[in-house]
Amino acid sequence: MPATPSSASPSVPPFDPGDPLGIDDLLTDEDRAVRGTVRQWAADRVLPQIAQWYEDGELPGIRELARELGSIGALGMSLTGYGCAGASAVQYGLACLELEAADSGIRSLVSVQGSLAMYAIWRFGSEEQKQRWLPGMAAGEIIGCFGLTEPDHGSDPAGMRTYAKKDGGDWVLNGRKMWITNGSVAGVAVVWARTDDGIRGFAVPTDTPGFSAPEIRHKWSLRASVTSELVMDDVRLPADAVLPEVTGLRGPLSCLSHARYGIVWGSMGAARSSFEAALDYAKHREQFGRPIGGFQLTQAKLADMAVELHKGILLAHHLGLRMDAGRLRPEQVSFGKLNNVREAIEICRTARTILGANGISLEYPVMRHATNLESVLTYEGTVEMHQLVLGKALTGLDAFR
After folding, report:
1. 68 is annotated as an active-site residue
2. Which one of 64, 374, 380, 384 is the catalytic residue?
3. Does pTM top 0.90 for this prediction?
4. Which of 207-211, 253-257, 292-296, 366-370 has the lowest mean pLDDT?
5. Are residues 205 and 256 both part of a single domain?
6. DSSP letter string, 269-327
């Protein structure tokens, strides 16, 4: 029998508390370079100010931030052509993780721009639409938003009331959309509406008469993010505003699947930030004459948090490899979104208990991540919706209706 390597074998690296499963061994040099670039940008531009932005409930300088994100290739980064970086799905996921380790609102800005608005135009738009919008969006010079959710229709988009009617050679759009990230600062809105021929997508310039996007205030989650309502009152659009390559819910749902993939990674960024804060605190906070990290109950919490965190990252990496191979199914994305966001919230809550009263302070990232993840848990499909997606896939029985 071959000899079992000892713990002192030079082929076995030392245990790394930051990467206990050795997941970095699965990454390429290019993967690490992408991750390093995004991590450094977030450390320089977001982390020094994010607590104040969150407390103030605003994201100042969002247009400048978008241009900076464009300059490092983070906008539409997994798309090809039109100024997009053409990065792998794994690299896009690593970027989402690093952005959400800074704040969920920053990752949401990037996800909505690239995985929803840009992706919809890239996949379903005409060549003229792609040339008009995508280069500016990839550079961060044009911010996009994605209008699907309505005040009365969230989990059931088939019930949407927004309607587009043909009027000669034009379309006339009427309706409301709700909880729209980037809406108040967007230059183009991808809006989904009912038509006589089924659900269609429209690339709507936000300076079109009849279009407005009042910002939603008084949020207790995603406070460092622009969230808006979209209001369309007789918005007249030319015939070429419609996305020509898709009809029906397949269009917006495929965009959502792409965005959910980014959340699978991003939620682990929020979890990692909270875990690292708790680990550092546990090693330095003293009670009863020694660091609290030396007590069994605290170590049990840290061990359980580390297990779920790195399982989640491993799951995200696996899904990224499947996406890069063209083999990722929507049910698998639901698997990842359901597990990782749910576990990320639990990691944040456990981290808060380790920090005690300090856990509610914005001097630490934990409570900010926890409240942000309450929104992440809901958007791009609630827990219940992803449970039912998986339930249908497992049983073959549809519980939605």
Report:
1. no
2. 380
3. yes
4. 253-257
5. no
6. HHHHHHHHHHHHHHHH-EETTEEGGGSHHHHHHHHHHHHHHHHHHHHHHHHHHHHHTT-
